[in-house]
Specification:
Shape: globular
Number of strands: 5
Strand order of the largest sheet: 3-5-4
Order of helices and strands: EEHHEHHEEH
Strand content: 5-15%
Number of domains: 1
Length: 177
């Protein structure tokens, strides 16, 4: 599978590239997007392996890793983290009710590096992304649809939306790249 060789790096146009100088990310690894005009992916307990030089020097960076905290459902630490993340999400997405926030926006994947969110997680973010990007909700919805991947082999898993590909399309539509 060519798309999996070399880390599945993609360029600004969303095309596979073998040139690390042109790469802006991988279709197989999530990234932390903080701009309000971009979609936000899943929580990553390993911060998508991105750390500052200061964090590396202080020992906070433990090297490249994957995984999650594996808190039990009744863990007070998990409950506190989810409450904090939910409050933050609701503050930046006025009009969204807590019960309408999909679980994948508040929970980490098993690897902590998942580049996908559910179509529901993308749809709940469309109004805020449209407002902050200056693009219409219809255009953002089209971008989500174009970057929604079906079930593997048509039967396994669930539909999923690649956050990096959506955000690249938004950046192109905004004239940022």
């Amino acid at each position: 599978m060519k798309e999996k060789a070399g880390g599945s790096l993609i360029d600004r146009e969303g095309n596979l590239t073998d040139d690390p100088e042109k790469a802006v990310g991988s279709v197989l690894l999530g990234q932390d997007f903080t701009e309000d005009y971009f979609f936000h992916g899943r929580v990553s307990s390993v911060h998508y392996n991105t750390y500052t030089e200061e964090q590396k020097e202080s020992g906070e960076y433990g090297g490249v890793s994957s995984g999650s905290f594996n808190y039990g459902n009744s863990s007070p630490d998990l409950e506190a983290r989810i409450k904090k993340d939910l409050d933050s999400f609701l503050a930046s997405h006025p009009g969204v009710k807590a019960e309408d926030v999909p679980a994948d926006l508040l929970t980490a994947s098993g690897s902590g590096l998942d580049p996908h969110i559910s179509p529901e997680a993308a749809r709940v973010q469309i109004p805020a992304v449209a407002e902050h990007s200056g693009l219409s909700e219809e255009e953002i919805s089209r971008i989500v649809e174009e970057n929604t991947e079906g079930k593997a082999l048509g039967v396994f898993g669930e539909e999923r939306v690649n956050v990096l590909k959506c955000n690249l399309a938004i950046a192109r539509a905004m004239g940022l790249i």
